[in-house]
Amino acid sequence: MKDKKKIAIYSGSIPSTTFVERLILALSKNGCEVYLFGLQKGKIKYNSNISSFAYRNSKVHKAWYLMKYTFLLLCFKANDKRKLDTILKSNSQYTLLDKVKCYPVLWHKPDVFHVQWAKGAEYWSWVQQFNIKYILSLRGAHINYSPIADEELADSYRRCFPRVDRFHAVSRAIKIEAQKYGAEPSKIDVVYSGLTVSDFENKMSPKSSCLNIVSVGRSHWIKGYHYALDACKVLKDRDVQFTYTIVGAKGYLELLYQIKDLGLENHVVLLDALPMEEVKKMIQKANLLLLPSVMEGIANVVLEAMASKTLVLSTNCGGMEEVIEHKVNGFICPIRDKDKMANCLEEISRLSDSERELMVNRALDTIENQHTEFEMVDNMIDLYKNVLNEG
Amino acid sequence: METKRIGLVLSNVPGYSETFFRNKIKGLQNKGFEVTLFVNECEPRQHAFLCDVVVAPNLNISALKKLLTLVSLILKACFVYPRKSYRLYSLDKKEGLPFKTIIKQILINQHLFTKELDWLHFGFGMLAVGRENIAQVVGAKMAVSFRGFDLYLSPLKHDNCYERLFKKDVKYHVLSQEMKTDVMHYNVPEQQIKVITPAIDTGFFNSTKKSSPSETIRFLTVARLHWKKGLEYTLEALWHLKQNGIKFHYTIIGEGSEFERLKFATDQMDITEEVTFMGKLPHDEVKKIMEQSDIYLQYSIQEGFCNAVLEAQAMGLLCVVSNAEGLSENVLHNKTGWVVPKRNILMLKDTIEDIIEMAEESKDHIRRTAMQRVRDEFHILQQQQDFVSFYTV
Questions:
Q1: CA R_g for chain B
Q2: In this complex, do B227 and A221 lie within 8 Å of one another by their Cβ atoms?
Q3: pLDDT tier for residue B202 given thresholds of 50, 70 and 90
Q4: From residue B193, how far is each of B101, B117, B190 by CA, in Å?
Q5: Smallest Cα–Cα separation from A362: which of A312, A316, A296?
Q6: Architecture of the domain defined by A6-194+373-390
Q7: Which of A145, A256, A257 is facing B264, going by the closest CB pair?
């Protein structure tokens, strides 16, 4: 963008998740001035193109923050403040915390306000009243399952989605899902997550007599780990040699019980969440990354495994088939089907090194063609340009 | 007979719908027992309960109030219950507990020192953890009930949590023979464990139901929406039925943390039209829905025994259950219903299809056998008698 546009990336907390941080950093390196708002949850140092206007979770800091922005707005943007106060009151979001959240956005007034999580969509729709372009990301749980069980949330989407300036969808599948809530297809740009391949050690781990399987993700039913454990039981009954490590699921009672119940104590390990670098190493060492989820946008961990030349078996949930082609650059099995998952696992355990090498090389090609950071940033900047030109 | 004094330890005062403890207390009182309920918290209106209620000291308060409460507890420990406090200190110390833990136990369990008791009965296994010496301190015999979750799931979260308990001279109450066997695996002598199954009010839950073939099969489950109830597997089996062209409607009564998971599953499997989540309902409404249903499903992953299955049998529903713990004692396979190995969706689907194909006479035979068995073996009076003998034999 010729004249530097101010892009606000809002995820609620700073720092945000790995993939949002990756986007923030990449935009800042590519000529965008990035603004961050929200709650400061941890320490992070940004470059000079990133300005963080985070508040800390203490009463004193919030009070200071509120006074500062109230004063600035009263002195220099009194009309805007009045207008925002009226909107917040009419939306029943006029508490002190609401002001702490909203006043800084009004004061700094970015050109684009990009909300990362859809549950906050209606809350932030006021920014449009101040000529700020409003972009919403369509990611994971917020679109895929939360509004199915929560009618109120679904209704808020139906009210808000038709008015959003532009959507960023993480997959084609989630683009279709969002249309159920009134998102106009022409306003949805699919921009895949991207990563820097050179950040990953892409060397295939050698085959061993025991298939070393790993999954990475939070302890949540959406991850479908109980189906993976059912498949492990099938493997065990077939005398297939394997170990299965789930990173991020330590203490997950449902799985602990299932492991004991199915006699998988010697095969399955549940680990705590690990730092990114350690996760990378675990994926790199594994023979297979398993994604047993019942729903995903496009799982970033799969992209990372592909960049590390680790073979992937994923269910056909959400957007996963946009990345993996069965038996071409990985394996795909149906959701909620332990037998088919076990069949795939057994087949993978029998692959020769050369067969695996062929697949993981193709997987790396997929990442280099479709999921690079460069591609992601380029597409995001195009999205921002388009939305700014529309106005 | 000399009046026996029972102290029953629970987390909360049993609500109106928690019939098990209410029936137990009523039964004991009718037989001349004096029952005191010890709870961690209690709303003011709940003090007017069936029996005396003693509430644990509340330390979940502001710092100043907490300080005052602690001072009062320390003074009481020193001047009101010095012997009991010292005895608990000595016993816990002998077992190697850290000083800080022992002091904490003396303070937070002081309410258990207030009554003279013959029995101190912990209503759930986890309630006895850390309190293994208290019965001895108050001069009472100790009893512990295991109800499923506490025996099978709590030890997975808290390693070796029952190690001290199982070394004590404790009388255990469990819900099924399977649970008894599992407690014995912890080296607890058989004679210390008594099986008292849950029971229901067969006067309330009864029906003259007979087979009424209909085009749409009406399935029912009454359960908390919790992963251990195996509802996701149940929905998958029903999805297979739909693929085979079987028309059905499935009603789930209950609420819980897994609503989102189950609602999503119905949406993903395209069976939202066939499945209704009713939320939690009172007994009389549950009964009404049971009267309108054909097959009761309880395909749990973990289950102590399950009252709802007894109620469904008493109401003349054909019951299909999993083989989780006590369920295969609750329902006798091919006699009073069907028991299907857990986590086997296709076998569950096949069993349901077989039932649908069965001759109406055979279904009626199973229905009648189940109703009779529940009336004979699982009525409240029997359970109350069993508890009386639990404390007297």
A1: 23
A2: yes
A3: confident
A4: 29, 21, 6
A5: A312
A6: 3-Layer(aba) Sandwich (3.40)
A7: A145
Q: Which tens digits make up the pLDDT trace of B160-177? A: 999 999 999 999 999 999
CATH superfamily membership of A197-370: Glycogen Phosphorylase B; (3.40.50.2000)
Per-residue confidence (pLDDT) for residue B208, from 0 to 100: 74
Tell me which chain A residue has its CA closest to the CA of residue B226.
Answer: A254
Residues of B in contact with A226 (CB under 8 A): 227
My answer on whether omega of the bond before A15 falls inside 30° of 0, hence cis, is yes
Q: Which residue of B has its CA nearest to A221?
A: B261
How many Å lie between the alpha carbon of A305 and the closest alpha carbon of chain B? 27
- pLDDT, residue B47, reads 66
In which element (H, E) is residue A311 found? strand A311-315
Tell me if domain A6-194+373-390 and domain A197-370 are identical in fold: yes
- Average pLDDT for residues B220-244, to the nearest whole number? 97
Q: What is the structure's pLDDT at B21? A: 86
pLDDT score of B2 more than 70: no
Of B227, B259, B343, the CB nearest to A149: B259
Alpha-carbon distances of A261 from B152, B231, B324, rounded to whole Å: 10, 18, 10
Compute the mean pLDDT over every residue in chain B, rounded to the nearest whole number.
92
Q: In what order do the strands lie in the sheet with A133-138?
A: A50-55, A33-40, A6-14, A112-115, A133-138, A166-169, A188-190
Predicted local distance difference test score (pLDDT) of residue B373: 96
Residues of chain A with pLDDT under 70: 1-3, 390-391
The tens digit of pLDDT for each residue in B98-116 reads: 999 999 999 999 999 999 9
DSSP label at A197? G
Are A341 and A228 within 8 A, CB to CB? yes
Quick one: which of B129, B195, B262, B182 has its CA closest to A260?
Answer: B182
Structure tokens at B306: 């399950």
Q: Please determine, for residue B356, whether its predicted confidence score (pLDDT) is greater than 60.
A: yes
Can you give the residue ranges of every domain in chain A?
A: 6-194+373-390, 197-370
State whether CATH 3.40.50.2000 applies to domain B5-56+109-199+380-392. Answer: yes
User: Three-state DSSP class for B111?
Assistant: helix
Inspect the interface and report whether the beta carbons of A221 and B261 lie closer than 8 Å: yes
Which value does ipTM take for this structure?
Answer: 0.90
Place of tokens 């009404």: B288
Q: Which of B332, B376, B358, B357 is nearest to B177 (CA)?
A: B332
CB contact under 8 A, B263 and A148: yes
pLDDT in tens, B51-104: 889 999 888 888 888 899 899 999 988 999 999 999 999 999 999 999 999 999
Under 8 Å CB pairs connecting chains A and B tally to 46
Distances from the Cα of B379 to the Cα of A288, B198, B309, B335, B388, angstroms: 54, 8, 13, 19, 15
Which CATH class for the B217-377 domain?
A: alpha beta
Using CA coordinates, name the residue in chain B closest to A229.
B343
Quote the pLDDT of residue A74: 95
Q: How far is CA A367 from CA A3, A195, A305, A370, B7, in A?
A: 31, 8, 10, 5, 66
pLDDT tier for residue B48 given thresholds of 50, 70 and 90: confident
- Judged by phi (left if over 0) then psi (alpha if -120 to 50, else beta), residue A182 lies in left
Task: Give, in order, the Cα–Cα distances in Å from A246 to each of A224, A256, A284.
Answer: 12, 11, 14
